[in-house]
Amino acid sequence: MANLLVTGGAGFIGANFVHYWRVRHPGDSITVLDALTYAGNRANLAGANAVGFVEADIRDQGTVESLLREQNIDTLVHFAAESHVDRSIHGPDAFIDTNVLGTHSLLKAARAVWLGETRKPHRFHHVSTDEVYGSLGADDPAFSETTPYAPNSPYSASKAASDHLVRAYHHTYGLDVTTSNCSNNYGPYQFPEKLIPLFLINALHGRSLPIYGDGMNVRDWLHVEDHCRGIELVIQKGRVGETYCIGGGEELANLTVIDTLCAAVDAAFAQDASLKVRYPNAPAAQGKPTDSLKTWVKDRPGHDRRYAIDERKIRDELGYAPARDFATGFAATLRWYIDNEPWWQAILDGSYRDWVATNYGDR
Ligand code: NAD
Q: Can you give the residue ranges of the NAD(P)-binding domain (predicted)?
């Protein structure tokens, strides 16, 4: 039995992790700490039973220390971050504040309570990204745990800094840490500023699908539940002080992802006549292919060309393997967004911020 504190648990991956953990570890206690920034949405946790929620900033060291003590936390899973590369280009400060200073504040709290007071077994698991490794050429070997860091965006630089701080707190103070560096995630509850939900919603509404540059930037795509499984393995069986790369093993050019998405939307409209009524502006409702919405736009500054993950370490040491390929995971994701329109409509019209008031009447 474990007592978890999950930072950023109202965001995309954190919420999926809470749902995942709740089902597989029903006896564990879970407390979410989240500042509910624009990306935090308490509706993401609806249906996850017996999950405590504290609205607080990870930089509030006193609150984190109190939680570690009072909830007898032994496992801190750290997702909270500013996570959108485009936003980091326009406003890097928030990325430094949360990803660097926020992670450091959590580490200080963990050190003070776990090493200074309780001296019990503990784990600080830090969730990070493959973007810390920079960009690969077409023929370069995939990123692994020994690839030198070379972050290129303010987002990836801030995550790289946080990875180094986590490592330093292990080597310097003896904090029991693990870190995972994962590839691009997709799945339910992803904020509709990221490629897959943004393009799905645009396709349903007949809005353009803006493609950066030549569309040939390559990413390794992983369903969020497979990421959660990888994190679970690292927490349970990973060696303290180690980092593990988590990937899907499916390298896809953005254009391939977008073509898959367009074909899947066309197929969904062909199979489900009600979609034509719900989304009359979709090309698929008007007998046109969804890919007629593709438009090319100026590339993102400093856009990394290719990310790929060599996941041999987590596979060989911990027995990790993604449960689904992109085609299967993507089909389920498309269905989830179609079946959960109120969730994304509430984000688009801003009313998701009222969710707590309408559901609990306490804010
Ligand atoms: P997200 O933006 O969807 O969610 C982030 C959550 O953190 C939100 O709920 C937000 O309210 C919360 N938060 C932000 N600043 C906070 C603060 N100062 N204090 C407390 N809470 C705060 O992000 P995500 O896509 O779910 O990513 C989660 C983690 O996984 C991040 O650390 C990210 O770097 C990492 N990651 C993401 C991906 C991906 O593809 N999305 C891939 C690899 C790693």
A: 5-330
pTM of model > 0.90? yes
Residue whose structure tokens are 């784990």: 123
Distance 197 CA to ligand 1 centre (A): 16
The single-letter code of the amino acid at 24 is R
pLDDT tens digits, the chain, 363 residues: what are they? 899 999 999 999 999 999 999 999 999 999 999 999 999 999 999 999 999 999 999 999 999 999 999 999 999 999 999 999 989 999 999 999 999 999 999 999 999 999 999 999 999 999 999 999 999 999 999 999 999 999 999 999 999 999 999 999 999 999 999 999 999 999 999 999 899 999 999 999 999 999 999 999 999 999 999 999 999 999 999 999 999 999 987 999 999 999 999 999 999 999 999 999 999 999 999 999 999 999 999 988 888 999 999 999 999 999 999 999 999 999 999 999 999 999 999 999 988 887 555 554 433
Q: Which helix (H) or strand (E) holds 26?
A: none
Q: Per the structure block, which two tokens stand in for 55? A: 């609205």
The neighbour count for residue 236, using CB atoms within 10 Å, is: 12
> The domain 3-190+224-249+303-323+356-360 belongs to what CATH superfamily?
NAD(P)-binding Rossmann-like Domain (3.40.50.720)
Residues designated as active site: 130-131, 155
Judging by DSSP bridges, how do beta strands 177-182 and 184-186 pair with one another? unpaired
The domains of the chain are located at 3-190+224-249+303-323+356-360
Q: DSSP character for 146? A: T
Q: Which residues line ligand 1 (CB under 6 A)?
A: 7-8, 10-14, 34-37, 39-40, 57-59, 79-83, 98, 102, 127-129, 159, 182, 184-185, 191
